[in-house]
Automatic annotation (TrEMBL):
Gene3D superfamilies given in the database record: Glutaconate Coenzyme A-transferase (3.40.1080.10)
Sorted UniProt keywords: Transferase
UniProt keyword annotation of Transferase present: yes
Family: Belongs to the 3-oxoacid CoA-transferase subunit B family.
InterPro entries: CoA_trans_fam_I, NagB/RpiA_transferase-like
One MF term in the entry's GO annotations: CoA-transferase activity
Organism superkingdom: Bacteria
Record-linked SUPFAM superfamilies: NagB/RpiA/CoA transferase-like
Protein's organism: Nocardioides thalensis
Protein name as catalogued: Acyl CoA:acetate/3-ketoacid CoA transferase beta subunit
Amino acid sequence: MSDYTRADVCAAAIADAFKDDGEIFASPMGLLPTLGVRLAKLTTNPDLVISDGESLFLAGTPPLGKKDVVEGWIPFRKVFDVVAWGKRHVMMGATQVDRHGNQNISAIGDFAQPKRQLLGVRGAPGNTVNNRTSYWVPRHSARVFVEEVDVVSGVGPARAKAAGAAASRFNDIHRIVTNLAVLDVGGHDDTVRLVSVHPGVTVDEVVAATGFELALPEGEVPTTREPSYAELVIIREMLDPKGLRFKEVPEPEAAK
């Protein structure tokens, strides 16, 4: 089991985003984020509190699409209490992310008459000003990574600081994991920065797939780590034996 796929690399990278959180409510939204969070709980951070994404806290880490032993009940109204308290790390999707780490899941086009209506801002503003927030982007492209988002749903650090202490105090855009790379907002003036490229991906490929000038780390850009043998066993035999992860990151995109 020395071979691995790009999807496995992405799952491990998402797990790494949660590894130092300690005892905190992990709120993954989507398939790969759920896989990565459950992988983290089984490896680097057993203190993570996970849910079924709806209304239940889980005692274990069931395979994707399955429910396990229920540890507690968290109705939707209670989620807002957790959001306000701040002991939470959410990983959301993103239709657009701009140079300053602002996220859009609301609409594409002019605000007065958008070309396409999406989810709406939903909980993104509250998440980004109250909790650690990361993003998962399954298709890294210049259509997603744009100079300026059409609608600000999730608030990046520069905009949060401009709004004042109430918005910036807990703003923490932690990681942006894509099918090509790992990024953060550690560039000059709180801009999106390349942290690592996945095995088999070049820096030039990531730069070409990004619609703004991407900040680069000093020196050589690291390669995202390979998932360990133990992680591959957990992913393939325990958490995702049906290979659902390949719906988001297709198997032909192999890392080796």
